[in-house]
């Protein structure tokens, strides 16, 4: 089963929100019971913590989606540009431009020969 990039991003947001909310709920339950608080109070506090952590997880998932989307976009842009290896430019070679320059630029490869 293959997910489209749009679906996989939304699943990341839901995954992050779900993991963070369940973790917050578990920590609140264990902390409240360990402190000796009444069970009803512990459960209500844990549910509030779960909702808050779900919202925070959704925001964190949204940030992760944007970071990954931007990273994917920069990788696509980098692949579109030609590398110097593909153009046949050697290290130390100068590329001559059509504009006249005031300084004399010599090719270090030819000058060494």
Your description of this structure?
The protein is mainly alpha-helical. It has a domain of 78 residues. The protein has four helices and no strands. α1 runs antiparallel to α2. The radius of gyration is 29 Å and the shape is rod-shaped. The chain starts with a helix and ends with a helix.
Summary, kept brief:
This protein is mostly helical.
The geometry reads as rod-shaped
Low-pLDDT windows of residues: none
Q: From the helix content, strand content and strand pairing, which structural class follows?
A: mainly alpha
Order of helices and strands: HHHH
Number of helices: 4
Number of strands: 0
Q: What profile does the largest beta sheet have?
A: none
Rounded to the nearest angstrom, the radius of gyration is: 29 Å
Distance between the first and last residues' Cα = 60 Å
User: What fraction strand?
Assistant: under 5%
| Quaternary state of the chains | single chain
Q: What's the mean pLDDT score? A: 79
Helix coverage percent: over 70%
